[in-house]
């Protein structure tokens, strides 16, 4: 018996390794397959999917784990992006290396996270939502207007000619070839983003299981009870803001290096809302769900963009309604439909699933017992 | 002095519009505890429907004021139907779902309505014909025109009517009962679903009134006009204490005043470093400051520890 069990376990481990290896190969080959099948544009979209995945996982810490509704998350993305832009562009003539600027962006975002978190610790639920929303808008308005009296952010024009990510003399901004395969910048950034995404996923997974992660979830479920259990709710909540913010800052820096251009327009309230939709639609608090949500919400609008015009052409022989409007309309309908059909998200965490399935028999039994106790 | 008074007049006019929209947010929040993100879009639809009616009737022999009244009636009815539909489609199926699920459907609703409006009415700015007299009056050195006076008066009248409805009628009592405790209200024989529908319709009718006020005041209607207005109104509702009717009125008027005074004086206060383009920053800073010291808004009751 024992031998069989051991054998099975070893077998399982081998399967797990095989699955890992397979997933790794798929992820490595994916950009080239996409390039060949769908075109270069889709590789770029995949890059963005990875960026949004990082953002959604960062927001998941604040909203999914700690249960703090943040509607201004894009502000941290903006702080990271502008830090990278200011220290690596002709704006100030600074060209600091990527490995120095990226952590700095994360640090600044982290400081802003604490700045936002500290005064709002006493706020609950939707009051917190509106304050974070206001915070996001404040950051955006400052970025938009800090071109006078001293020009810092270059105002609505934004900052251009940002240095690409560069390791020594190896720049991700130009094509390289290795063994006859040409790696264009979108491919190179794909691998960089993939690396960072895997790192973020790993950190998220470890956090979820850690003492801190369990403290966050305790606060989410019942703050008073958590405090009574000896959790320092103030510090733990600040930590959630700071962690989430620094993830946002890192993605922001990567975004700036990838795009080579940042402007306040990229950091509107709608972006915050989109990231929140990814988290909630996919399944709050569940890493797999959040990844699924971000991939879907990046790919769906793009697929609709390519589909909305031609399908109308095929159906009616002409374009009846504005494809851009139709695309967003269908997107909104999809948001509503998914949430109505699966209120806990597409792939909810195991705990949330349990909460939602109400066991009627157990409740009836419990009530009966209470009645019985009362009669006694 | 006259500049100060002028800014106060402008702030009051803008604030009455905010207050009317904020009432819609706060009523829904009070009863269902959810942010109806699509409410700003209802304002826009109200303005658009009113514009259609006005364009249809403007060539007729009817008096301009009558045209506007008919437009108001039609827009209010359209918005009430829309509010009812929004609740049925996006919120009712999620009554017992996790708290954030209805927020996402609300966002989806908002996107759908915006893009539907863009399909129907196009992307361009539509001029709204001037149906009311615009003649300016001098009031202690500040200029106020007829439209602005009418806006403030109508807003006050509507708010008074709403308070009467909520505190003096059967429907109002049912609304308060459901807000207090839906389960207990149901046991007392209140048809909870009907009360919730009525609340949505009432809020939407107020949104229609606000939409027409904005279009008459600025003379422009646009498919995107609801988004920012809705956001400001929601801010106002939170400022006053969300879920509280008087709070929404106070918050709306205050936010209007803060904005216009901020736009007028922020330059002088900061020694010329910040211009009027920072007026929203100023408004949000005031909001944050108020919430830091009164975490449940100006008139809000203390929220139970578990929100």
Can you walk through the features of this model?
The complex is a heterodimer of chains A (376) and B (307). Chain A is mainly alpha-helical and 376 residues long. Helix content of chain A is 72%, strand content 5%. In chain A, the strands form four sheets. In chain A, strands 1-2 form a two-stranded antiparallel sheet. In chain A, strand 6 and strand 7 form a beta hairpin. The longest helix of chain A is centred in the first third of the chain and has 36 residues. The radius of gyration of chain A is 24 Å and the shape is globular. Chain B has 307 residues and is mainly alpha-helical. Chain B has one domain: Orthogonal Bundle (ABC transporter involved in vitamin B12 uptake, BtuC), CATH 1.10.3470. Helices cover 72% and strands 4% of the residues of chain B. Chain B is built from eleven helices and four strands, in the order H-H-H-H-E-E-E-H-H-H-H-E-H-H-H. In chain B, strand 2 and strand 3 form a beta hairpin. In chain B, helix 2 runs parallel beside helix 4, helix 9 crosses helix 10 and helix 10 crosses helix 11. Chain B is globular and about 60 Å long. Chain B starts with a helix and ends in a 14-residue tail after the last helix. The relative contact order of chain B is 0.20. Classes of the chains: A mainly alpha (376), B mainly alpha (307). The interface between A and B is large, with 51 and 52 residues.
Structural class of chain A: mainly alpha
**What is the helix fraction of residues of chain A, given as a range?**
over 70%
How many angstroms separate the termini of chain A?
Answer: 51 Å
Number of helices of chain A: 14
Quaternary status:
heterodimer
Which percent range describes the beta-strand content of chain A? under 5%
Strand elements of chain A, count: 8
N-to-C SSE string of chain B, H for helix and E for strand: HHHHEEEHHHHEHHH
Largest sheet of chain B: 2 strands, antiparallel
Compute the average pLDDT of chain A: 85
Can you name the CATH architecture of chain B? Orthogonal Bundle
Q: Supply the number of structural domains of chain A.
A: 1
* Proper CATH architecture of chain A: Orthogonal Bundle
Query: Can you tell me the residue ranges of chain B where pLDDT is under 50 for at least 5 consecutive residues?
Result: 303-307
The pair of chains with the biggest contact is: A-B, 51 and 52 residues
CATH fold category name of chain B = ABC transporter involved in vitamin B12 uptake, BtuC
Count the helices of chain B. How many?
11
CATH top level of chain A?
Answer: Mainly Alpha
Main β sheet profile of chain A:
2 strands, antiparallel
Distance between the termini of chain B: 45 Å
